[in-house]
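It is worth pausing here to work through a concrete case rather than discussing structure prediction in the abstract. The textbook approach is simple: state the sequence, then state the predicted structure, then interpret. We follow exactly that order.
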Amino acid sequence: MSAISNFKVPTIEEVSPENQEIFKTLKSALGFVPNIYAAMANSKNALGNYLTFSNGATSFSKKEKEVIDLAVSQVNGCKYCLSAHTAIGKMNGFSDEQILELRAGSASWDAKQNALAKISRSIAETRGKVDQALVADFYAAGYNNENLVDLVVAAGIINITNTFHNLTDVAIDFPVAAEL
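Step two, the predicted structure:
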């Protein structure tokens, strides 16, 4: 089964007034409107709902959020998110080698990020039926129940984006991530 090969990425003139405002905000903040977000604007409501959810407060740092996004996106095979989060991961201080290791589900340079990468990858692979040893390692690394709840939410958010791109195959507008 393949993705929709010609899914429409609308321009600002082709979206609802609410989405036009979001496009303006994104362009101001990022310098452009990423295709994945523009494609979500085919729905009058989805883009705003998604951004509210994905930009919500979390107990994770920006770097930790990238650990989750990279590990889950690799399992889900989302080239768009791997490309976007490789770029964002670099902006948050990860090296190319570290990003590749995070995508594989580990972080040998940091015990806490390693536990997070391993459990994130397992959540995606097992749909949450994670080996309890990984959960114990997560807690032993210094995470708590709040972090576990936020991890499930973060994995769910990136899962939405991964699924959307895997279905629609909108053009990648970041430097394309290397194969693992």
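Step three, interpretation. The first helix runs from residue 17 to 30. The CA atoms of residues 98 and 109 lie 8 Å apart.
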